[in-house]
Amino acid sequence: MTDDIQLDKETIAKAYARWAPVYDLVFGAVFERGRQAAIAAAERIGGRILEVGVGTGISLPDYSPANRLYGVDISEPMLRKAQERVTELGLNHVEGLSVMDAARLSFPDASFDVVVAQYVVTTVPDPEATLDEFARVLRPGGEIVLVSRVGAEAGLRKSLERWFAPAARKLGWRTEFPWQRYARWAEGARGMRLIERRAMPPFGHFSLIRFGKAEAIRSGAKEALSASA
Ligand SMILES: C[S@@+](CC[C@H](N)C(=O)[O-])C[C@H]1O[C@@H](n2cnc3c(N)ncnc32)[C@H](O)[C@@H]1O
């Protein structure tokens, strides 16, 4: 973690303010399969879904109206695009959109059935603290669904990622992000476990990653356990 490139919120917010007018054009098609995979995974659980780093709201029309969606993002210009989309398309299943830092969500514990973050975790200053926050607002039995960059372990791609890292930071993301960071987080986070990792385009540089939160032990079960001890 020590050679991690440092991102700060101000640089990221500035970067996405610049991306907002052209984001859908540049990143619409290229990330489409990942978004569809994340939506399908989220809808297997369904219910109240938090999309963190919702950006221009590009994925919102693709969720079934049977779910309730809440979108948050650090970038006000990106979120303004999302609001225009919600209004124009009459997306009544979108409960709210708010400017919010992914690492400091202003929701009570266990508020959501699913937390989705597509192409976001490697853009935040402290990915592990951000994942902790996702786990906090998730109800027991719920899932965190990510589509996220996984950096190369070795070879030419790793060298290229290292070389491109300073420029990528200005554009608003990290290129280097080893799988061990996700795995280590899941091992250390209480009650969370890895359910799935699946390579996603472009070139398999991204993955669909699902983490499940353990069901709370019901009080009856707890009593039975202590009686049998
Ligand atoms: C690469 S874009 C992904 C947007 C969208 N999820 C998609 O599928 O295209 C990353 C998004 O994360 C947002 N973001 C970056 N850092 C954030 C933070 N700390 N808290 C909330 N959102 C953040 C950016 O403003 C941007 O909208």
Describe this structure in words.
The structure is a single chain. The protein is 40% helix and 23% strand. The chain has 229 residues and is α/β, with parallel strands linked by helices. It is globular, with a radius of gyration of 18 Å. The chain starts with 8 loop residues before the first helix and ends with a helix. The model has no long low-confidence stretch (mean pLDDT 91). It has a seven-stranded mixed beta sheet, sandwiched between helices. Residues 9, 12, 16, 27, 31, 35, 52-55, 58-59, 73-75, 78, 101-103, 118-120, 123-124 line the site of S-adenosylmethionine.
Query: Which stretches are poorly predicted, pLDDT < 50 over at least 5 residues?
Result: none
Most strands sheet: 7 strands, mixed
Shape: globular
Number of strands: 7
Strand order of the largest sheet: 3-2-1-4-5-7-6
Helicity level = 40-55%
Give structural attributes.
229 residues, alpha/beta, 7-stranded mixed β-sheet, 8 helices, globular, binds S-adenosylmethionine
Any chance you could write out the topology, listing elements then pairs?
Layout: H1 9-19, H2 23-27, H3 32-45, E1 48-52, E2 68-73, H4 76-89, E3 94-99, E4 112-118, H5 127-137, E5 138-149, H6 155-171, H7 179-188, E6 192-200, E7 206-213, H8 219-228
Parallel strand pairs: 1-2, 1-4, 2-3, 4-5
Antiparallel strand pairs: 5-7, 6-7
The structure holds S-adenosylmethionine.
Question: What does this entry show, briefly?
Answer:
With 229 residues, the chain is an alpha/beta fold. 40% of the residues lie in helices and 23% in strands. The chain has helices spanning 9-19, 23-27, 32-45, 76-89, 127-137, 155-171, 179-188, 219-228; strands spanning 48-52, 68-73, 94-99, 112-118, 138-149, 192-200, 206-213.
